[in-house]
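Input structure tokens:
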């Protein structure tokens, strides 16, 4: 938790951005795995933690925009709870820690919301994503469960996006800590990239590194020699000499700030010429994207420039053909990079995705592009100082997608399909860094995890000793 002034100031800012009514910020509850008391690791809601700082289940924050009153609803633990859980702060003590004066029992929440409704006041809430909070919101507001997403407050969503998009110094320090954890995880994975090693063994070790630093990874680890599957959570293979191991993983801090990195290593420690050629193109796209990222530049334009580096590199190899600008305009590069260049990152690895990507990544000026590949770009809008984003170009050879495009002659003017026969077992390469947008450019968050092919080979080989 940060000190209480941080949360007082954040709530003050929020009140300046919402005109009237009451704001409800629902904390998360424990989530059961297989019976009520056997729960997943608790994860607080990011909007709640941003404004109310408390990392406990069963809380709701209420802000009365007009009177300025702030309240926390939740129940004190009973003696029975304390016997099982150890000593706990009272609700009043918790409220004091985050600068809130009024702590009330949970059931009083219903009275407060009912009173606001009876006086015709606006009830602002964010789109709920957990079943229990959908039920709670339904009970509080009588909005049907199916309508809750649509009835979420756009005014509140936009206010939160405004505040959370720009990271302050405290947050940047947290993000650097999360990056340091991610660095350790990735170097450990590289060292284990050897033939005969079970992928799950590497996934378990790096998850353990994150946990042993105090916190779980910031998202379920993606790790496979089948890196052509973009979010591959299946770690069942035994690594084969000569394949590529793609690892997309990051850590988080106790305050929930995330890191999100991808590295791709040659199993056994030496890139083949074919792998190195593709690797160099992805690395060039990554470096170009970092160079171009600065305030005022749209991330959509950076995405398209990275796509051009990819199309140009693949053209040099005879895999693509024709005019590079036209190829990217037609979306031909998306056969190889069917995802976006990156996304916002902060308290969530895909920051604020619960609020709706359209509000986080786009605005009235820059609208989503409805073309395969670029349609998956989560962040298109102009960058601002203080944004934290990922830069994650990749090249993948996805047999099913190649077959589809080949048989339907999709973008056939730009792709030499017969050159692809040699790449069906290639896998995929993604190289992901985390960037802070500065006053005049972008800087990497944390030390750069080894990325030049020679450095990566060296680290993999160190692991064999
Ligand atoms: N870790 C998922 C992603 O890179 O977006
Ligand atoms: Mn990632
Ligand atoms: Mn990412």
């Amino acid at each position: 938790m940060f000190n209480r002034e941080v949360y007082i100031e954040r709530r003050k800012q929020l009140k300046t951005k919402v005109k009237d009514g009451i704001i409800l910020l629902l904390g998360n509850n424990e989530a059961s795995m297989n019976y009520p008391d056997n729960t997943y690791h608790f994860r607080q809601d990011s909007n709640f933690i941003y404004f109310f700082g408390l990392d406990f289940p069963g809380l709701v924050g209420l802000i009365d925009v007009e009177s300025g009153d702030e309240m926390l609803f939740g129940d004190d633990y009973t003696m029975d709870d304390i016997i099982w859980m150890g000593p706990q702060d009272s609700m009043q003590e918790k409220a004091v820690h985050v600068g809130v004066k009024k702590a009330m029992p949970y059931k009083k929440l219903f009275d407060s919301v009912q009173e606001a409704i009876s006086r015709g006041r606006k009830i602002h809430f964010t789109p709920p994503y957990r079943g229990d909070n959908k039920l709670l919101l339904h009970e509080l507001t009588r909005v049907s469960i199916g309508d809750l997403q649509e009835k979420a407050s756009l005014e509140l969503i936009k206010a939160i996006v405004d505040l959370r998009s720009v990271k302050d110094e405290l947050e940047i320090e947290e993000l650097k800590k999360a990056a340091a954890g991610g660095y350790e995880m990735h170097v450990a994975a590289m060292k284990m990239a050897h033939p005969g090693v079970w992928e799950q063994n590497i996934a378990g070790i790096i998850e353990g590194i994150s946990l042993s630093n105090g916190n779980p990874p910031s998202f379920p680890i993606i790790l496979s020699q089948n890196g052509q599957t973009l979010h591959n959570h299946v770690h069942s293979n035994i690594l084969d000499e000569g394949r590529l191991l793609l690892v997309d993983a990051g850590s988080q801090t106790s305050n929930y700030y995330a890191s999100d990195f991808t590295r791709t290593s040659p199993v056994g420690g030496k890139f083949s010429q074919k792998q190195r050629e593709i690797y160099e193109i992805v690395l060039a796209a990554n470096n170009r994207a970092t160079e171009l990222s600065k305030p005022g530049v749209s991330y959509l334009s950076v995405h398209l420039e990275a796509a051009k580096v990819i199309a140009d590199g693949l053209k040099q190899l005879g895999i693509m053909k024709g005019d590079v600008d036209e190829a990217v305009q037609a979306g031909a590069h998306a056969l190889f990079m069917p995802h976006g260049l990156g996304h916002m990152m902060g308290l969530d690895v895909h920051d604020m995705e619960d609020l709706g990507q359209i509000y986080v990544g786009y605005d009235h000026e820059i609208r989503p592009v409805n073309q395969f590949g670029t349609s998956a770009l989560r962040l298109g809008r102009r960058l601002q100082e203080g944004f934290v984003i990922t830069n994650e170009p990749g090249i993948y050879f996805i047999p099913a997608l190649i077959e589809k495009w080949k048989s339907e002659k999709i973008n056939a003017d730009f792709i030499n399909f017969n050159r692809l026969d040699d790449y069906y077992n290639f896998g995929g390469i993604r190289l992901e860094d985390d960037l802070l947008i500065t006053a005049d450019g972008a800087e990497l968050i944390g030390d750069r995890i080894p990325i030049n092919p020679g450095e990566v080979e060296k680290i993999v080989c160190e692991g064999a000793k």
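The longest helix spans residues 169-191. The chain has a mean pLDDT of 98.
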